[in-house]
């Protein structure tokens, strides 16, 4: 595994990883192994596990922007945002729960609700903005942070381009994608070689992202890769700001 090879090169021994990456905070020790960063899932397996989520119909979420169109009564068309409580308010029929439903299901419900008032009540719901359709890019890119996706059609390489591209110290050979699935306690960690995407030898390495995926672009060099991943995770777990933090501890 590429990430394992990097850490072995930096530490001299795979078995020594927990010793060199130990952070002690409030008497408890957290290691890179504990947070799962070293357990990459084979790419084919990760894609197979993710496929049901990629194939399922979109479900409306709070703060999505919707357009409601009536085929035969355009004067009733509305642009609105799903409230934080998951509901929308429509003319004539009042409040309707929208969150948790597919656009097709909500279209049918609105059509049925307006049938009491209109001879031809056919309505369709269009999602103009997807609130949860986002990913995160971190590491050696020029504009790390949150990026908007186009309904899951963003790939790892496209997300990096959306983040301004990579810095001079980056490597695209060992990019890490961290993915959480609703039915799994531990996140999936995928390692992809985007250099092989750019040269055309393995285009399948440019994986399609799912909402809330994290794409991490490491520094080139074995020691720098280990350090960058470790520091990013420590900072985002707020360990460095916790009371009693004693720093990175190297155990002989």
Features of the shown structure:
252 residues; Outer membrane lipoprotein wza fold like; wza like fold; 3-stranded antiparallel beta sheet; 7 helices; 23% strand; disordered C terminus
CATH fold field value of the largest domain: Outer membrane lipoprotein wza fold like
Assembly state (oligomeric): single chain
Q: CATH architecture of the largest domain, please?
A: Roll
Counting helices, strands and paired strands, the structural category is alpha+beta
**CATH superfamily of the largest domain, please?**
Outer membrane lipoprotein wza domain like
Task: Give the overall average pLDDT.
Answer: 76
Euclidean distance between termini CA atoms: 25 Å
Question: The biggest beta sheet, please?
Answer: 5 strands, mixed
Report the order of strands and helices.
HHEEHEEEEHEEEHEEHEHE
Shape: elongated
List the helices and strands and how they pair.
Blueprint (H helix, E strand, L loop, with lengths): L1 H10 L5 H4 L1 E4 L2 E3 L12 H13 L9 E6 L7 E4 L5 E4 L3 E4 L5 H12 L8 E7 L4 E6 L5 E4 L7 H7 L12 E5 L8 E5 L2 H4 L15 E4 L4 H15 L11 E2 L3
Parallel strand pairs: 8-12
Antiparallel strand pairs: 1-2, 1-13, 3-4, 3-7, 5-6, 8-9, 10-11, 10-12
Helix pairs in contact: 1-7
Can you put this structure into words, describing what you see?
By secondary structure, the chain is α+β, with helices and mostly antiparallel strands. The protein has 2 domains: 2-55 and 132-243, Roll (Outer membrane lipoprotein wza fold like); 65-129, wza like fold (2-Layer Sandwich), CATH 3.30.1950. The chain contains 7 helices and 13 strands. It has a 5-stranded mixed beta sheet with strand order 9-8-12-10-11, sandwiched between helices. The longest helix is centred in the C-terminal third of the chain and has 15 residues, at 222-236. The radius of gyration is 23 Å and the shape is elongated.
């Amino acid at each position: 595994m590429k990430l394992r090879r990097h850490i072995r090169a930096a530490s001299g021994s795979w078995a020594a990883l927990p010793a060199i990456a130990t952070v002690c905070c409030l008497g408890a020790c957290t290691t890179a192994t504990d947070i799962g960063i070293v357990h990459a899932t084979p790419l084919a397996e990760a894609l197979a596990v993710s496929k049901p989520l990629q194939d399922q119909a979109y479900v409306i979420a709070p703060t999505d922007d919707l357009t409601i169109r009536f085929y035969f009564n355009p004067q009733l068309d509305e642009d609105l945002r799903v409230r934080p409580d998951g509901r929308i308010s429509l003319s004539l029929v009042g409040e309707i729960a929208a969150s948790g439903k597919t656009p097709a299901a909500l279209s049918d419900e609105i059509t049925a609700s307006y049938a009491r008032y209109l001879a031809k009540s056919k309505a369709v719901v269009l999602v103009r903005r997807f609130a949860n359709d986002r990913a995160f890019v971190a590491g050696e890119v020029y504009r790390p942070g949150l990026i908007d996706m186009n309904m899951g059609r963003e790939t790892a390489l496209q997300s990096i381009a959306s983040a301004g591209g990579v810095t001079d110290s980056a490597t695209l050979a060992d990019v890490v994608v961290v993915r959480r699935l609703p039915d799994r306690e531990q996140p999936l960690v995928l390692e992809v070689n985007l250099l092989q995407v750019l040269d055309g030898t393995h285009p399948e390495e440019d994986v399609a992202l799912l909402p809330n995926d994290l794409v991490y672009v490491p520094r080139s060099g074995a020691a720098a890769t280990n350090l960058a991943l470790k520091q990013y995770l420590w900072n985002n777990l707020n360990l460095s700001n916790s009371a009693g933090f004693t720093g990175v501890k190297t155990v002989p």
